[in-house]
């Protein structure tokens, strides 16, 4: 909208300290959505390196030395990748839980507790992420 | 935009002005004297009140946004500080009225009924859209920042241009428009209790524009109808007395590209509505009605 002068960040993200639950839910949902889209393309790019593996010798495949397996093993040996996987899980879990919350909002169920359901999905996301850490990090060091 | 009659300013401090004003008989002369006198007293009182603030007397510190495109020295937006004597039950609007009457008569803001009915005095107080007359100073952290509503053009100080908001409101035909009226000229058009109960909350809108200002979809999409207008559409679309044809008409208006589907359920409007209208709930229900209208199983 046109302005008689520039009020700068006053009207936009500069107010982030004053955002309410519904606003944070929207921002996180957008953010996690974009991260998941980004991951999807990376995932396709990495998996497509496996295509030559299908034409490799049976002996190479049996010895786990085909291009697919070596790529995955190389990636999994990096600590950064392990940590990113935890992050990916957190992002996916929040997006799923908030997506369920939005489903209820769309159906008009429990709109007066929309803030509580946002906090609940945050807490659940945190719990699931923490619980997953041993699985993802095991053997990385 | 002061609605305060000028003579009231004299009455407020009879003790100070008696000595000078009583001796000069012509009313004109007296008024001018009092004006000049008042200017001096304003500065003095401001100084006194500043001192009072330091001495721990009950005052409240408000920071008020000031801007006036027509006066050279005020074209750069700034915040003015006022220390207003606090009385129990004082609202943000009371504080502004005090600051305007006692310290700076050029301080500009809209207000009328002072009881949350007219919807004139929606401000951005401590980062949230609120009605000045409905917000207790004692509920706010100091200093209380009072700004004009965001996402609207500022005309002067706390006054924003509401034209765009009114345009959106009028776009949904915000009036009762039944398909057919009863035969008798004075016949009542009765509504069932259940139906009245359904639209009850949506009828409470006072057109203050707080929701519209809080909605950052409305800020980004100039054509978005906005929560208040959609709530108006809800109020009439859900009214059983209007008839099928008009209801279909209304649903067609709200399901356009810049209608209900722009709503991203951030709940900002519902949070700031001074009349506690469940705006998001109403918009969501309109979304469902729009889908039902277009879904055909055949």
Written account of the structure:
The complex is a heterodimer of chains A (141) and B (298). Chain A has helices spanning 21-48, 58-62, 67-76, 79-107, 114-137. Chain A contains 5 helices and no strands. Chain A is elongated. Chain A has a single domain (20-137), classed as Up-down Bundle (3 helical TM bundles of succinate and fumarate reductases), CATH 1.20.1300. Chain A has 141 residues and is mainly alpha-helical. With 298 residues, chain B is α+β, with helices and mostly antiparallel strands. Chain B has 2 domains: 7-159, Beta-grasp domain (Ubiquitin-like (UB roll), Roll), CATH 3.10.20.30; 163-294, Fumarate Reductase Iron-sulfur Protein, Chain B, domain 2, CATH 1.10.1060.10. Chain B is built from 12 helices and 7 strands. Chain B has helices spanning 7-12, 14-23, 27-54, 92-103, 163-171, 193-199, 210-214, 216-220, 226-237, 244-254, 268-272, 279-294; strands spanning 59-66, 78-85, 122-125, 128-131, 144-147, 154-156, 159-160. Chain B is elongated, with a radius of gyration of 24 Å. In chain B, 35% of the residues are buried. Chains A and B meet through helix 1 and helix 4 of A and helix 11 and helix 12 of B.
Write a compact overview of the structure shown.
Chain A has 141 residues and is mainly α.
Offer a few descriptive terms.
heterodimer; A: 141 residues; mainly alpha; 3 helical TM bundles of succinate and fumarate reductases; B: 298 residues; alpha+beta; Ubiquitin-like (UB roll); Fumarate Reductase Iron-sulfur Protein, Chain B, domain 2; 2 domains; two-stranded antiparallel ribbon; 12 helices; 7 strands; 42% helix; disordered N terminus
């Amino acid at each position: 909208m046109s302005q008689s002068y520039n009020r700068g960040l006053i009207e936009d993200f500069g107010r982030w300290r004053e955002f309410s639950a519904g606003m944070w839910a929207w921002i996180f949902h957008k953010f996690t959505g974009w991260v998941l889209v980004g991951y999807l393309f990376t995932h396709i790019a990495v998996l497509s390196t496996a295509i030559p593996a299908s034409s490799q010798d049976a002996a190479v495949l049996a010895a786990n030395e085909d291009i697919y397996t070596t790529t995955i093993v190389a990636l999994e040996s990096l600590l950064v990748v392990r940590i990113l996987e935890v992050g990916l899980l957190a992002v996916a879990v929040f997006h799923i839980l908030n997506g369920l919350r939005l489903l209820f909002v769309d159906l008009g169920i429990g709109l007066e507790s929309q803030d509580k359901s946002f906090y609940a999905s945050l807490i659940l996301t945190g719990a699931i992420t923490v619980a997953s850490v041993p699985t993802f990090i095991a053997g990385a060091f | 935009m002061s609605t305060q009659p000028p003579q009231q300013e004299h009455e407020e401090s009879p003790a100070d002005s008696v000595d000078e004003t009583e001796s000069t008989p012509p009313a004109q002369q007296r008024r001018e004297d009092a004006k000049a006198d008042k200017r001096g007293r304003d500065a003095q009182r401001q100084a006194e009140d500043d001192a009072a603030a330091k001495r721990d007397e009950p005052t409240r510190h408000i920071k008020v946004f000031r801007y006036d495109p027509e006066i050279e020295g005020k074209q750069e937006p700034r915040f003015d500080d006022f220390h207003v004597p606090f009385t129990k039950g004082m609202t943000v609007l009371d504080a502004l009225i005090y600051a305007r009457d006692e310290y700076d008569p050029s301080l500009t803001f809209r207000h009328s009924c002072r009881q949350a009915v007219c919807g004139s005095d929606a401000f951005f107080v401590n980062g949230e859209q609120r009605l000045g007359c409905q917000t207790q100073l004692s509920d706010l952290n100091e200093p209380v920042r009072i700004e004009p509503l965001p996402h609207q053009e500022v005309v002067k100080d706390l006054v924003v241009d509401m034209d765009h908001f009114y345009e959106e409101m009028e776009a949904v035909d915000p009036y009762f428009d039944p398909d057919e009226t009863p035969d008798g000229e004075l016949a009542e058009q009765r509504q069932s209790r259940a139906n009245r109960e359904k639209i009850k909350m949506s009828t409470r809108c006072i057109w203050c524009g707080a929701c519209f200002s809080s909605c950052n979809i409305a800020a980004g999409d100039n054509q978005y109808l906005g929560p208040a207008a959609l709530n108006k559409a809800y109020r009439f679309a859900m009214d059983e007395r209007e008839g099928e044809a008009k209801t279909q008409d209304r649903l067609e208006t709200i399901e356009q590209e810049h209608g209900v589907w722009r709503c991203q359920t951030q709940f900002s409007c519902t949070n700031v509505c001074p009349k506690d209208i469940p705006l998001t709930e109403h918009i969501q229900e309109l979304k469902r009605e729009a889908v039902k209208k277009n879904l055909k199983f055949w």
